[in-house]
Amino acid sequence: MTTTATLTERYISATIRSLRPEVQDDVRAELEASIADAIDARLEQGETPSAAERSVLTELGDPGILAAGYADRPLHLIGPKYYLVWWRLLKLLLIIVPICAFGGVMLGQLIDGAPTGEIIGTAVVAALGSIVHVGFWVTLVFFVLERTGADTGVRWSVDQLPEPTQNGAGRADAIASIVFLVLGAGAVFWDAFVGFFPTEGAPIALLNPALWPWGITFLLALFVAEALLAVVVYAQRRWTIGTAVVNTALAVVFAAWSLTLLLHGALINPEFLSFVFTDNGVTDETMRILTVITGFALVAFPLWDIVDGWIKTARARRS
Length: 319
Hints:
The chain has about 325 residues and is mainly alpha-helical. The protein has helices spanning about 5-15, 20-45, 50-60, 65-70, 85-110, 115-150, 170-195, 215-235, 240-265, 270-275, 285-319. Keywords: Membrane, Transmembrane, Transmembrane helix.
């Protein structure tokens, strides 16, 4: 059974996570002692424990600034006032914007039927351009704020402290992964024997019935492998390079398998496509666009799974 971390634990965790591993224990011990002494002093003055803890941590200030002091790392952009706000916003945007730009341009090029080289080149240029623009415009805004002395209204408080991370190896993550995979396997059987798409007659299956038995058996084997991987990660209490490699291999196999079947018209039930689209006057061009979007999703989700696994592995190695 897990317990909620105290504000002090969250504050110390947020402070030491960016420090070198060899100094984290010393800084943790020093902070625990100094915070405890400051809280005791306030308790003697009649404050409640919760109010004393919040007051002490608020006086200590942003844990990012405190960590920079321990690491002897200067916080300067044009000046120190908005450095951490600028840096946190910039990191967030540099993760989100280039990925969205790359994916959006690639999807648009695929829909337009552009050649492979043009698709990749245009998407890469868009991603690189977004990095340049994000870096320039965000920095320019904070440069103006710093020089004009404007007040952004941003104030640090203990409510912003993050919960300590478990490197993706928590029980909740393992249970969620297994439940999701069990629901996925159940959906495959439900689709085959009951059908998801209702009609005036018998429901129509979404997946191609020709995938039975070997294609569906292969898909279920991937589900079982993913579930076993979740159990292994939980048993180790952390992601490792080995589990990240296995996770990458499973994601690549699923993407390649599903995308190959989609491109050969063997993934989706032809009867379903005919009933929903062809019989209702949907043109071949629209069908091509729908196929491109489906294929994009079949690649995007495994790709995110791969990135997520390696991010968790990097966090585990730093802890």
